[in-house]
Amino acid sequence: MFTQFLFFLINFLLVSSDGDVVGKITVGYQGWFAAIGDGSPINTWWHWAKIGQQPPSPTNVAVISWPDMREYNTSFQTNFSNLGNGQPASLYSSFTDQTISTQFKWMSQYSIDVAALQRFNPNGIEGPIRDAMAAKVRTNAEKYGVKFYIMYDVSDWTNFQTEIKADWTNKMQAYTNSPAYARQNGKPVVCIWGFGFNDPQRPFGPAECLDVLNWFKAQGLYVIGGVPTHWRTGDQDSQPNFTQVYDAFNMISPWMVGRIANVNDVDRFYTDVNTPDLAYLKARGIDYQPCILPGNLSHHDRYHGELMWRQFYNMARLGVQAIYISMFDEYNEGNQIAKTAENAKMVPTNYNFVTLDEDGVVCSSDYYLRLTTDGGKMFKGQTPITPIRPTLPTCPLNFAQSKVNNRSCLAFISTTTDWNTANQQCGQLAPGAALVSMDSAFQNSAIQ
Ligand SMILES: *[C@@H]1O[C@H](CO)[C@@H](O)[C@H](O)[C@H]1NC(C)=O
Ligand SMILES: *[C@@H]1O[C@H](CO)[C@@H](O)[C@H](O)[C@H]1NC(C)=O
Ligand SMILES: *[C@@H]1O[C@H](CO)[C@@H](O)[C@H](O)[C@H]1NC(C)=O
Ligand SMILES: *[C@@H]1O[C@H](CO)[C@@H](O)[C@H](O)[C@H]1NC(C)=O
Ligand SMILES: *[C@@H]1O[C@H](CO)[C@@H](O)[C@H](O)[C@H]1NC(C)=O
């Protein structure tokens, strides 16, 4: 009995209580798209095109997904053919105020708590626009009631050991004065992504990484580590001798992009990686912020939300402290949750961008934002933990474009627990047919 109490007490003391990241949904925010003529200091097609001096085209493209452009009032003409609906193929710049404002408004609308602004080496040609984006993130986070923190990415940052400290002191630290700057355990939050990876982009040794990590902690910060998937076992994507570094973080957030492509993979990682990771971290009083991703759209990994929901389900039943979603606007890796082209009408006709209806299930452009809302509710205990994906592929937004009419759509919304009753009520189901899931509803040709 006493031992049990002691265990309870130890666990209670070790695990951080809710703050701006613990108990919350954080999204990685790139904000790294620009266009020639957007007024930005970089003035190139940054991250849209391989050769930034020339407009994106089928032979000069750096993204694998196309955004839903309908809510941006400013866009830049590419050299792709028109979209399937005849409209010009134009793209946004993250630097445009109305664009970043729209994106932070979505975060707020879809109950995303925190944006982690990615900050790569800011000392080269990208420095000025990265600085400008940090200021715009602050403005919009404050405006829309979203928290934010700086997430350094040390990839290819050769002199990071001294430069990252100078960047924090001279530039980023000032952002902690913002009421929107995320705090955990009373401390401003910073994340450093890239320590311990076993690859040439991040060849840094444990001593320099530990020096930087301890320096940030000494600044009074709560420090998150964006670490390799196999950090705990120190093999595969992780260097072997980083245990001391990993153990020094306040929170661990292992990378998952490129590791899972179907629900079986998700479950395998739940058993072999997430469960032992959490046990290891709990025993050491380190918080755990596993990564959830929608899946590489271009690679057909999403299964209209099944991949992402399974991760939410597994992390909710595991009882992790926090969630990191990779990413909000990562159109380059096809792992964006932000609004995305729904179908062939919304992408250039002369390139095969994969759209959200790729497996035959019509999904609204905001589908992965809505799924994030629902996953967040489950994670926070506001809805029961369930493996059944509750997020309707279409409606209530944009369903004028879906195959499903208003009546059946609204019936589904009001009775998400009982598809058959819903169908009987709206009279959409073919005689004798039975619905067992949302999928069968939307794949059922009886519903038009
Ligand atoms: C876009 O919207 C913003 C904010 O509402 C406004 O200030 C700006 O003038 C608009 N731009 C265009 C091109 O309509
Ligand atoms: C646009 O693409 C066409 C080929 O489709 C090419 O001839 C033209 O030079 C391109 N324009 C620009 C501005 O890159
Ligand atoms: C850590 O491990 C890597 C890979 O085995 C090795 O190259 C490096 O020298 C080791 N560093 C230290 C400080 O032991
Ligand atoms: C996503 O899929 C595309 C197309 O198969 C591939 O080229 C790309 O490397 C994938 N991205 C990631 C991050 O796995
Ligand atoms: C469907 O219903 C919504 C309101 O619930 C309405 O705004 C919309 O115009 C309707 N669309 C059609 C095609 O009837």
From TrEMBL:
The signal sequence is 1-19
Q: Which InterPro entries match?
A: CTDL_fold (IPR016187)
Q: Does the keyword Transmembrane helix apply?
A: no
Q: Does the keyword Signal apply?
A: yes
Keywords per UniProt: Signal
Q: What is this protein called?
A: Xylosidase
Read off the lineage from the record: Eukaryota, Metazoa, Ecdysozoa, Nematoda, Chromadorea
